[in-house]
Fold this protein.
Amino acid sequence: MTQGIDGRLLAEQIPRLRRYARALTRNVQTADDLVQDCLERAWRKAHHWEAGTDLRAWLFTLMHNVHINAARRKRPETEPMEHTNYADPKTSGADNALALRDLEQGLAQLSPEQREVLLLVCLEDMTYEQVAAVTGVPIGTVMSRLHRARERMRGFMADERRPGSTPNVKPVLKAVK
């Protein structure tokens, strides 16, 4: 049944799958369910994997498809991401905690397609070709989504697109005598 995949090969990919699933779902329990569904599908469909090809890309493709299928079945949850695995912000400084919060808010404002491409390239260090294979879109689309995601994140991190912020507006000071 699992001709080319042995359990050790799958187990080596679990940390990467969990990290990507948590970034996609922004919920620890949902991410763990997604990883489990992905690994279960990989085990059942192991005969489709070709030995010598990139197992990580194949697993990410499976996870992408499982995630998309679940999203089609129901609306995605909008719960905030939990911080149980992050360092205590009190020990790392208030600026780091604020930067992490800003990063999460910026990622939440991206479209799911842009967020997915950005995370695969930046967090998982995948090539454009691998991301195109995982998401099933042309490389040009990957590059376009990545560019737009990076631009939106730059703008957000520079305080241009936050709700309630006023971009590039300097306070006017009056001379008082």
